[in-house]
């Protein structure tokens, strides 16, 4: 009898023990790899994000992006800010740029890159970027994504471009912002050079110019090696160390590529020349393929270390492609502009056991959504995540339907390469408000992705409603507005421009 009871106990232990073990395994915090590319346009890939393949899709070769798309989810309407620092501070804080007020790119302490304009004066924005202490002048202070993941038990790794805070401020060093490891990140938004033979410095072409020198990679100086490859090698070493610690890790793989200076990656350049591309286009394509190889190498490392099945990979760009590069047709505009070419970016997600394979999500999302999404994935509660402008897209990853009437906002009160604007996207509609002349553009993005047909005059009722919602957001976020020099008055809010 005792023997039978013992067998029963052992049976129950095996059955329910396995079930509890599976549940605990299911609750294990996944590793998070955020593969963030710089200045990569929506069509700068062989993965088609449009309803059909475009000329650029057929021009570029990104097999690892293709593989990620086949194994995961393609987001066709992912958005970022129109330029780098605003996007990066938004993903770190979950705040829209209008709220955190890093609305242009940062570099020199207390100095804005805005040129002088005869008629408009930009506001006094948070020119020094993200602060670790709250004591730096003209900065935003907020508990960061990396700090919250760190507190949740993650090893946090920063590799590549930081561009969170200005030179000489606490925010220029990612280790002050919640990263346990910083590889090559500092204040600058681009490298002096991608070439190890030039020590990743601009000094070779501009003697004495060390502002853009990539730090911490001295052991590669003088070598014939490309920066994208160096960062990948170092990232894979950091992943292995993190896995050895037995803790979940967050890898922020933030490539400098494909930001200027545009320098050919010799590993891939010649085939694009042979295909008939111009020298510039071949250079650009080679940098894209080098970035894609990095993605493949990191995916391979995850597989090699046995953590692939418990790692979520998110691929995204920080803004659209610059005006010097081939236009991302069918999109209008480029980096910094309010049009789709400036703000719509490629995005791919793979989460083994959660996301479906080879699927597309056409619902839109925006870069500040990264913050609550990653924290939810890490197991934080809503109260631990806190209030945020972002919204978790975990339901979208799982294939669940979302409301299509959520408003998205952009705010650029500057004169850097573009006059000031504010934008709202809600459902099919997008309203652009130009501060300088108080003019509007209204587009039905679903029917007119190229933004060629301004429907403002035909749909003034719709425009007025959107303008009111945009105004309410600008006031709620205490968005800074540009000022007219002639009368020393700030630009009117969009709703004030209607009779």
Annotation keywords:
4-stranded antiparallel β-sheet; Sulfatase_CS; signal; 499 residues; 18 strands; Arylsulfatase, C-terminal domain; Alkaline Phosphatase, subunit A; alpha/beta; 2 domains; 14 helices; Alkaline_phosphatase_core_sf; Sulfatase; disordered N terminus; 9-stranded mixed β-sheet
Record the SSE blueprint.
Elements lengths: L1 H26 L3 E7 L17 H5 L3 H9 L1 E7 L4 H10 L3 H4 L19 E2 L8 E2 L8 E2 L3 H7 L3 E6 L20 E3 L43 H19 L3 E6 L14 H6 L4 H26 L6 E7 L22 H4 E8 L7 E3 L3 E2 L3 H8 L4 H4 L8 H4 L9 E6 L8 E6 L2 E6 L4 E6 L15 H17 L6 E2 L4 E2 L9
Parallel strand pairs: 1-8, 1-9, 2-11, 2-12, 4-5, 6-7, 6-8
Antiparallel strand pairs: 2-10, 3-17, 9-10, 13-14, 14-15, 15-16, 17-18
Helix pairs in contact: 7-9
Give the fraction of residues assigned to helices. Answer: 25-40%
| Number of helical elements | 14
Second-tier CATH architecture of the largest domain: 3-Layer(aba) Sandwich
Euclidean distance between termini CA atoms: 91 Å
DSSP, total strands: 18
The CATH superfamily of the largest domain appears as: Alkaline Phosphatase, subunit A
Beta-strand level of the residues, as a percent range?
Answer: 15-25%
CATH class of the largest domain: Alpha Beta
Structural class: alpha/beta
CATH fold category name of the largest domain: Alkaline Phosphatase, subunit A
Q: What's the number of structural domains?
A: 2
What composes the largest sheet? 9 strands, mixed
Shape descriptor reads globular
Overall mean pLDDT: 93
Describe the structure.
It is a single chain. With 499 residues, the chain is of the alpha/beta class. The chain has 2 domains: 32-397, Alkaline Phosphatase, subunit A (3-Layer(aba) Sandwich), CATH 3.40.720; 419-497, Arylsulfatase, C-terminal domain, CATH 3.30.1120.10. Helices cover 30% and strands 17% of the residues. It has 14 helices and 18 strands. It has helices spanning 2-27, 55-59, 63-71, 84-93, 97-100, 145-151, 227-245, 269-274, 279-304, 340-343, 370-377, 382-385, 394-397, 460-476; strands at residues 31-37, 73-79, 120-121, 130-131, 140-141, 155-160, 181-183, 249-254, 311-317, 344-351, 359-361, 365-366, 407-412, 421-426, 429-434, 439-444, 483-484, 489-490. Strands 1, 2, 6, 7, 8, 9, 10, 11 and 12 form a 9-stranded mixed beta sheet that branches. Strand 14 and strand 15 (429-434) form a beta hairpin. The longest helix is centred in the N-terminal third of the chain and has 26 residues, at 2-27. The termini are far apart. Belongs to the sulfatase family. This is Sulfatase.
């Amino acid at each position: 009898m005792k023997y039978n009871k013992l067998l029963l106990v052992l049976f129950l232990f095996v059955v329910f023990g396995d079930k509890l073990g599976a549940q605990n395994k299911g609750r294990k915090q996944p590793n998070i790899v955020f593969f963030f590319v710089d200045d990569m346009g929506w069509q700068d890939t062989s993965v088609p994000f449009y309803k059909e393949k475009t000329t650029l899709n057929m021009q570029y070769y990104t097999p690892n992006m293709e593989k990620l798309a086949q194994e995961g989810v393609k987001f066709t309407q992912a958005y970022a800010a129109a330029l780098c620092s605003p996007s990066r501070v938004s993903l770190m804080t979950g705040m829209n740029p209008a709220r955190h007020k890093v609305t242009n790119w940062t570099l020199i302490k207390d100095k804005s890159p805005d040129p002088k304009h005869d008629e408009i004066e930009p506001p006094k924005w948070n020119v020094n970027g993200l602060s670790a202490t709250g004591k730096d002048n003209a900065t935003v202070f907020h508990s960061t994504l990396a700090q919250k993941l760190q507190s949740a038990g993650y090893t946090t790794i920063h590799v590549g471009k930081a561009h969170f805070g200005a030179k000489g401020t606490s925010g220029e060093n990612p280790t002050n912002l919640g990263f346990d490891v910083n590889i090559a990140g500092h204040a600058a938004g681009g490298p002096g050079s991608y070439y190890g033979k030039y020590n990743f410095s601009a000094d070779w072409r501009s003697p004495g110019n060390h502002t853009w020198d990539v730090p911490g990679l001295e052991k590669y100086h003088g070598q014939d090696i490309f920066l994208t490859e160096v960062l990948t090698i170092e990232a894979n070493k950091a992943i292995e160390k993190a896995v050895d610690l037995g803790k979940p890790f967050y890898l922020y793989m933030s490539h400098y590529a494909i930001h200027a200076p545009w320098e050919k990656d010799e590993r891939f350049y010649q085939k694009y020349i042979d295909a008939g591309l111009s020298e510039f286009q071949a250079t650009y394509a080679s940098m894209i393929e080098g970035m894609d190889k990095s993605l493949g190498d990191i995916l391979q490392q995850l597989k090699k270390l046995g953590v692939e099945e418990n790692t979520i990979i998110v691929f995204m760009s920080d803004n659209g492609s610059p005006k010097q590069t081939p236009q991302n047709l069918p999109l209008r505009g480029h980096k910094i502009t309010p049009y789709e070419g400036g703000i719509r970016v490629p995005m791919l997600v793979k989460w083994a056991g959660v996301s479906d394979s080879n699927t597309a999500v056409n619902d839109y999302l925006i870069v500040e959504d990264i913050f609550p999404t990653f924290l939810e994935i890490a197991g934080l509660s809503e109260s631990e995540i806190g209030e945020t402008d972002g919204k978790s897209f975990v339901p979208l990853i799982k294939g669940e339907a979302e409301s299509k009437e959520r408003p998205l906002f952009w705010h650029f009160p500057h004169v850097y390469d573009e006059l000031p604007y504010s934008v709202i996207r809600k459902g099919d509609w997008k309203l652009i408000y130009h501060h300088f002349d108080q003019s509007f553009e209204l587009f039905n993005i679903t029917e007119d992705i190229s933004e060629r047909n301004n429907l403002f005059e035909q749909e003034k009722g719709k425009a007025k409603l959107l303008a009111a919602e945009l105004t309410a957001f600008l006031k709620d976020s205490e968005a800074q507005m540009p000022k007219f020099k002639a009368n020393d008055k700030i630009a009117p809010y969009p709703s004030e421009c209607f009779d």
